[in-house]
Design the sequence.
């Protein structure tokens, strides 16, 4: 593997690794799909057929994840999207398939749609709550450039992140810049999501000093605001003023009227 420490300082790798610590617990975990490739860990509590749908972007020849979700939660709405294959690897009448891909900007000539357009294409109400599985071979960064978590009820994201993509010597030379852009996109995403589960694909790593950085990383994220109601309930239940009669501003520490 290329010795990127010649081009990229160690601090940005450390900063990225520090962000990858799971920070949400006490939710039941379950692996859906094949062990290794094709499987993703999800929080079971969010697989409610009456409230959620699963949007799976990137299926290729493997729908073990989608079929495992259906087996565990019959009646779950499963919508698969992939512009690189003509259909599912085998028939499953409970899984809908659409030959389009996910991107940050809609390009119908290339069969690539923004999330809102992909949902419209599938006839989904934009207000429906979503579990997104995204395995789109590097296009996740294009998606994240324009993804606004506040505009969607995308409560759970299961994403395969591609950090190192070397197609030729030019991409190798600009990689430090590209990596920093990806670090920024990841940081922006984690302003809105907790990390629920992290799985490094052991296909390949980049060694930078003492760090073994996975070139492919699968993460499951849970949107922070889905816990806000419970947090506010706990604040009201357990917090009493230290000084009676004085103004008492508790979490989320917002001024009245703002």
Sequence:
């Amino acid at each position: 593997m290329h010795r990127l420490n010649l081009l990229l300082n160690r601090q940005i790798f450390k900063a990225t690794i520090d962000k990858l610590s799971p920070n949400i617990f006490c939710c039941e975990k379950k692996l859906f799909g094949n062990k290794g490739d094709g499987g993703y860990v999800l929080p079971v509590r969010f697989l409610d057929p009456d409230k959620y749908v699963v949007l799976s972007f990137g299926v290729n020849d493997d729908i073990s994840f989608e079929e495992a979700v259906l087996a565990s939660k019959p009646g779950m709405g499963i919508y698969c999207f992939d512009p690189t294959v003509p259909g599912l690897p085998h028939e499953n009448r409970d899984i809908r398939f659409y030959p389009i891909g996910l991107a940050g900007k809609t390009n119908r000539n290339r069969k690539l749609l923004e999330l809102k357009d992909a949902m419209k294409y599938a006839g989904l109400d934009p207000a429906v709550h979503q579990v997104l599985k995204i395995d789109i071979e590097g296009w996740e960064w294009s998606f994240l450039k324009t993804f606004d978590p506040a505009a969607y009820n995308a409560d759970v994201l299961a994403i395969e992140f591609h950090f190192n993509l070397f197609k030729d010597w030019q991409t190798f030379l600009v990689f430090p810049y590209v990596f920093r852009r990806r670090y920024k996109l990841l940081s922006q995403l984690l302003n809105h999501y907790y990390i629920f589960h992290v799985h490094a694909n052991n296909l390949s790593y980049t060694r930078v000093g003492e760090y073994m950085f996975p070139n492919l990383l699968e993460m499951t994220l849970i949107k922070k605001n889905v816990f806000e109601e419970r947090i506010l309930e706990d604040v009201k239940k357990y917090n009493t003023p230290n000084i009676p009669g004085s103004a008492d501003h508790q979490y989320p520490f917002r001024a009245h009227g703002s």
User: Anything to note?
Assistant: Residues 138 and 198 are 18 Å apart (CA to CA). The mean pLDDT is 89. The first strand starts at residue 29 and ends at 32. Helices lie at 10-19, 64-72, 115-121, 140-146, 169-173, 175-190, 228-238.
